[in-house]
Amino acid sequence: MVDWSGGNDRGPRPVKDAIWACIGTAGIAGEPIYLRNRQLAEDWLVDTLTTLQDAGHRVLVGFDLCFAYPTGFATQLVGSEDTLALWDWFEARVQDDPKANNRFDLAGEINAMFPGTGPFWFNGLPRDIAHLPRKGLDRTSDHGLAEKRAADVAIPGSFSPWQLAGAGAVGGQVIMGLPVLARLRHRFGKALSVWPFQPPEAQIVLAETYFSLLPDLVTADPEPIRDAAQVSVYARAFSALPATDMATLMAVDATAEGWVLGAGQAALLRKALISNPPLLKNDCFAMPQGAYWTPVAEAQNHLRDRLTCVMPAEDVALKNAAGRFLAKDVHATRAHPPAPNAAVDGYGFAGPAPEGIVRLPLVDGRSAAGAPYHGHVPAGHAIRILTGANLPQGVDTVVLQEDVSANGTEVNFHGPLKKGANARDAGEDMVQGQTILTQGRKITPGDLGMMAAVGVRSVSVFKTLRVGVLSTGDELREAGEAATDGEIFDANRPMLCALAAGWGYQVVDLGRAPDDRDTLRMILDDATHKCDVILTSGGASAGDEDHMSALLEGTGSLALWRIAMKPGRPLALGLWNDTPVFGLPGNPVAAMVCALVFAAPALSVMAGGTWTEPARYMLPAGFTKSKKEGRREYLRARLENGQVTIFASEGSGRVSGLSWATGLVELDDPAQKVGFGDPVAYIPFSSFE
Ligand code: AMP
Ligand code: MG
Q1: Which of 296, 320, 355, 608 gets the most CB atoms within 10 Å of its CB?
Q2: Are residues 514 and 570 in the same domain?
Q3: Closest by alpha carbon to 531, among 509, 502, 512?
């Protein structure tokens, strides 16, 4: 969906009233794309359509500009009502430059071809232009054309294409859009058709649409810039539309003046949107262009900002909630402690006790946990009280039993003792109604204790993320199977499965895939029915046998990240049938490190948690190393005698180092020389989750 504009270059920062575009696929919209001027927009359209065409997609391109004028106009200019010939007429005459264009002059020239003043009006320039009135009322109607097309009449609030400028006007952007449409048409030839002037059967179909058919849904969209929200909402709606409904929208007979796709049919678009809530955006993995080697921190920030929870919520009993992510905040059902009580075993009385020897007669009875004393303890008296017992009326202070001598009728001890000593206030730990845990929290055993203490019985948590693990490569055999010299055992799968299980997810073992695109496609199709996210290893680069990246590329959602990190090669990220796929490197050391550094926090977000930074401990180095600039390095490490030592070889083929190590040393991007005893950041494997 393209929100067109007739204005000049709008500058580098995304702003409204510029050209905005957004690609929707099956009800999921990509990030809205800001196009600061028409030249960039045209280049982007050509590139994007070429890519989608090569990948075999069918594409509907919606533009919010009139594809035609009221009946009679084309005949005056090109001798017939051939709209597409009219496009070429404009293409030959419109001059466009990011800073200036000739739309007002051309409108004046066209007006001169009509009797009277001609149809166009609203000269937006300071200088006068022959034949172009400044006001609509300054025109005569000798031109004989209608103010609006039938399609415009059908849409309340739409503007006449004759009005070139002023708030809401469309006339300028039509003149500045038709030449671009004409060039696209010639560029893509038979692969492109223009609805409704041609049957919508080509691979690419251009159609006119109007972005005010669903105003409430645009307002509700979180995109702050309205143009961006519009293209996003309509990209979702049109791409979610079932084929039969699309056929209904296209079944209009308006080959003369054209039609607005969706006019009068907003209910169908609305239905398509509502039955398809957005999940991850199709380009959630797309990296900003221009960055060749992406720094680790930038790649992480990108994932953190784009990924969202992909799981629905469910209620589970408290005892089953450990390790799950909270879908709702949890509030204390009652105060903790619910009533004032004794923190120790001893004798309760009304404090404070003065300096010197204190003697207090004992009342008959005692207060124990679960068996409180219901009477009132008179001033100057004490009562036997046990840990956790409610303080009876008249008692606010407890003296420790080890500090007294007592004989059954009297208790003696040395003062002073402060009022409130050894006593707990009601609600001093948690007050009733207090938020004790927030959404996204991964529930710990301690959380269970706390929630149980305030009477929480069940919690709303996200369903457990199902993580598929797949190894790819013709050379792989199952560990222990017969294998030739050219074959290796699949080391990644057991490792990645165990990592995912350790993070608390449900592991779906997807086995091994050969280096064959069709088989891989089938395995992925099947996996999307039983997994919420897929971790693959191998085949993630851009080589001949890198089928994982090639397949993801075909979805239009692939992002091949070259990360400035050692170990690690490109990470291939994409969506397969809307299921996110993390294509990890095949090399086991790189696969493990990339899984820890990227997949662990990303999965946590998709599972409903928050992006968590692993705990880093600054510890003295038991090694020396000089590191070059421009990449982050992770070394396999462990602790020996309070120092961090690193594995003998940095060779990324040494799988044994993964077992030797208990964690990683992280050396940040700048060049550095590490000497013995210098503090380095050590991250235990258990910190990644
Ligand atoms: P690739 O990314 O497919 O080019 O693989 C890179 C290297 O990692 C190659 O040497 C592969 O043989 C190796 N490799 C790929 N997958 C695995 C695996 N599951 N277990 C062990 N080694 C692997
Ligand atoms: Mg391979």
Answers
A1: 608
A2: yes
A3: 509
